[in-house]
Known about the structure:
Elements: H1 6-22, H2 25-35, H3 45-60, E1 64-73, E2 76-86, E3 90-91, E4 116-117, E5 122-130, H4 136-144, E6 153-157, H5 165-172, E7 177-181, H6 184-187, E8 209-210, E9 248-251, H7 253-261, E10 288-296, E11 299-309, E12 314-324, H8 332-353, E13 361-368, H9 376-384, H10 386-392, E14 393-398, E15 405-411, H11 416-423, H12 435-445, H13 450-453, H14 469-474, E16 479-486, H15 500-507, H16 512-530, H17 538-572, H18 600-626, H19 633-641, H20 643-646, E17 664-666, E18 674-676, H21 678-685, H22 692-718
Parallel strand pairs: 4-8, 5-6, 6-7, 7-9, 12-13, 12-14, 14-16
Antiparallel strand pairs: 1-11, 2-3, 2-10, 5-10, 11-13, 15-16, 17-18
Helix pairs in contact: 1-8, 1-16, 2-8, 8-16, 17-18, 17-21, 18-22, 19-22, 21-22
Amino acid sequence: MLGFTAEGAAGQRALEARLDQIVRAENMDEWMRYIVSKPIYTGSPHNKETADWMVEQFRSWGFEARLDEYQVLFPTPRVRELEMIAPTRYTARLREPTLPEDATSGIEQDRLPTFNAYSADGDVTGELVYVNYGIPGDYEELERRGISVEGKIVIARYGGSWRGIKPKVAAEHGAIGTILYSDPRDDGYFQGDVYPEGPYRMEHGVQRGAVQDMPQYPGDPLTPGVGATADAERYTVEESPTIMKIPVLPISYADALPLLSAMQGPVAPQEWRGALPITYHIGPGPARVRLHVEFNWDLTPAYNVVAVMRGSEFPDEWVVRGNHRDGWAMGAADPISGMVALMEEARAVGELTRTGWRPRRTIVYAGWDAEEPGLLGSTEWAEHRGTELQEKAVLYLNTDGNGRGFLGAGGSHTLERFVNEVAKEVTDPQTGVSIWERTRARRAVAGDAEALARADLRIAPLGSGSDYTPFLQHLGIASLNISFGGESGGGSYHSQFDSYDHYTRFGDPGFRYGVALAQTTGRMTLRFAQADVLPLQIGNYAETVGGYLDEVESLADDLRSSTERLNRLVADGSHRLAADPTETFVPPTAEGAVPYFNFSPVRNAVSRLEAVAGDVDRDFARAVADGSLGTRVAELNGILQQLEQAMTDTDGLPGRPWFRHTIYAPGFYTGYGVKTLPGIREAIEQREFHLVDAQMTRIAAALERVIAMLAEARALVAGTVS
Length: 722
């Protein structure tokens, strides 16, 4: 067991076996039923009620528990209007119905309507243009067809990127408003039976969600980099760079159908066509709409539940375990399915202490508020306590929503071997094999040759989209994000129908995977709390970073080749053969040449890292097995605790200094989606070639810091191993 002596591993497995026996599905069922009985969004009365209740639960299990309060900007709508005024008239319903099969769907008190948080106020009228998913590549297609969105209102379907990217890119191209809708091809009857007969989104279901420019920074839009305490210095709403500059409104596919049906212009490309019973046209017009939204721009208290069990030997080394507890409406799948698993894990840890056992390291359980508006609760807490967390946190372990199916794991690649070890020891409740073996089989069937050829299953790199973001991307704390899914169907996401009834029918009936999640993350929490040496593996990290560098070099080569090919076509005029004579066609223009980049600083650093990784892992394993580190184990763990921080750069990424990690970041135009080696990769993708050399230097310097710290750790170990 990574980080444990043989004797320690035996004791750890016995501890984990007791944990498995303690975890109860019926507790999760009971807690979810109560928590999602009323709306739990930030600022709702039931949000505060459940926060106080959670504090009392943690205290009853032996934790020191409290509420940490922050004052955050959370706009709520006071006006939402959408109507088509030409060529016919239609007023959008903008409302989800009550269903007899869903007990909480008819709750009106304290219910938030369907809206996009951090949209601008606005009352705009214009022709509609259909922009597919509304990502940069879609606007390139529009440009090839000679279609502009300048002064227009765009309608985009959800999917393809994080929702906030869609109005961001629309505004960059001159649009005056954005309408978002869920197309049934992606999120509705094309996928299967719709709710209440099946799990998928019904025709009037709407995806709420925030749309601020979160790739600049998450958290409270008014207090970047500092905790949003009551006396914090704040931007005004007008000054905030992340609040959207044009109005945005989400609608159902029932409301989208009349708008899209009234559109003409070119027929949309095949890959743009959804599953509505119409021919998809791009426009502009003749559909013309009026979009009117206004908001109450209020500061709202966000309450983080924080529960602490102090370590018996290393109280200043913290294992931080979090899940958010706020939802857009009822929030059963997102996030309470994960929150109740965290609570049951914590209850089990509390039960273990009744036998006289105490964790060696401090365990901090957190129920974050205001995640849905943009990771506000966790980000403000991490910014407020950043120095202390960088000194003490050895791991941040995150969960969010949970379902049934297959293990999903992402995070720092120094933790990849650790995740694999844990996954091999948890039983999948559906098949009876380990969750590792079931996930491996799924990947192999999907054509992933590495799943069979490689000893460890790869974990995903993390971009953004949940509460690990401030810990990993801003503070440089080794982080993991864990869940189960793939067999739950979906369809309730951010709607009024993300309810207890929906979840217990389609999400995880019987909470069997809630138990599996508590057993998985419980092992992870306890192993980090108990390990002699923090269970990191450098070989997996070195291999992964080397692979990312290969990808970026190939990206540069491919971009150079495609640019040269385009320029040859432009020069000889053969590009005109690709034009459709029935459509307006704007011939492409030549692109600037792609230079040859000097990757050697990063390549040399990666090579040095790869050369020492195996020796580092063997030295650490030998030292742990020999049990000869003695009192110097704390010094070694202090070095390892700082390793992820060595991968950060205090200047951050170009144009967005909040994001400091040099290996992982959310993409500037992907939102949640990760960009690895982001400084280099995005400079090449966005053709900002003048930035590449400086980013090469920064990434190489970060890797050299890691190598130097490993050398220091090896020297320490060598002094204690005979």
